[in-house]
Amino acid sequence: MVACYPGDGTGYVRHVDNPNGDGRCVTCIYYLNKNWDAKKDGGLLRIFPEGTAQFADIEPKFDRLLLFWSDRRNPHEVQPAHATRYAITVWYFDADERARAKEKYLTGEILNGFWD
């Protein structure tokens, strides 16, 4: 997935990439933002590791590769970006979990992306 935030204060709300066992195990984000200034441009990825009140802010600097678990262990959000912000995201899938998720989808056990 390629994401482009237009720099008008757009961000992305706190979420989990794989809340319901769809097969995604590891989220990999590669940043393409040359000369990024977090103080001026914002756009930090904020991760809220499960089981702690702390969070980690990651600057979307050029040529940075970030990997984290895709499940509920790592809720995250994108803070408002005030410059055009680019990122490429790919996921590593667990084949067995993905097959189970597909089967549940095909048999109607999943409605609108959520488990019954």
Automatic annotation (TrEMBL):
Domain Fe2OG dioxygenase: 1-94
Protein's organism: Cyprinus carpio (Common carp)
Catalytic EC class: oxidoreductase
PROSITE patterns: FE2OG_OXY
GO cellular component, one term: cytoplasm
GO biological process: cellular response to hypoxia
Cofactor names: L-ascorbate
PANTHER family assigned: EGL NINE HOMOLOG 1 (PTHR12907:SF4), EGL NINE HOMOLOG-RELATED (PTHR12907)
Keyword tRNA processing (UniProt): no
Pfam families membership: 2OG-FeII_Oxy_3 (PF13640)
EC number: 1.14.11.29
Organism domain of life: Eukaryota
Protein name: hypoxia-inducible factor-proline dioxygenase
The entry's keywords: Dioxygenase, Iron, Metal-binding, Oxidoreductase, Vitamin C
Catalytic reaction annotation: L-prolyl-[hypoxia-inducible factor alpha subunit] + 2-oxoglutarate + O2 = trans-4-hydroxy-L-prolyl-[hypoxia-inducible factor alpha subunit] + succinate + CO2
Gene Ontology MF terms in the entry: ferrous iron binding; hypoxia-inducible factor-proline dioxygenase activity; L-ascorbic acid binding
